[in-house]
Write a structure and sequence with these properties.
Strand order of the largest sheet: 3-4-5
Low-confidence stretches: none
Shape: extended
Radius of gyration: 19 Å
Order of helices and strands: EEHEEEHH
Helix content: 25-40%
Mean pLDDT: 76
Distance between the termini: 59 Å
Largest sheet: 3 strands, antiparallel
Number of helices: 3
Number of strands: 5
Number of domains: 1
Length: 103
């Protein structure tokens, strides 16, 4: 585990295999009180990225790590746009994709 520095002299422990990718960006802590009725709060480690259209999007560190973990576990690379991700298809929808039997 390595310590990744955040804003306000905070740091977060990340796995060695994720450190190089995550350290290429500037991360900060964002507090969120939505959905809690104002009682307590949640903290997320986030960064912003600029989209092609000029707007910004918030990227959550835990989602980046989970995507990287998923690709390491399956040995699959991210899919090209328009491809079907068979990892996300449920058991019921797999049966729906089978060809119909002739009766």
């Amino acid at each position: 585990m390595k310590q990744l520095k955040l804003n306000d002299s905070l740091s977060v422990a990340v796995d060695d295999v994720d450190y190089d990718e995550l350290s290429n960006h500037k991360w900060c802590v964002q507090e969120d009180t939505r959905g809690r009725g104002g009682k307590g709060f949640r903290q997320y480690v986030v960064r912003t990225a600029r989209k092609d259209d000029g707007s910004t999007e918030t990227i959550y560190m835990h989602k980046v790590i989970l995507e990287r973990l998923s690709s390491r576990a399956t040995g699959l690379t991210p899919l090209a746009p328009g491809m079907i991700d068979m990892r996300r298809i449920t058991v019921n929808s797999k049966f729906a994709l089978r060809p119909k039997r002739a009766t």
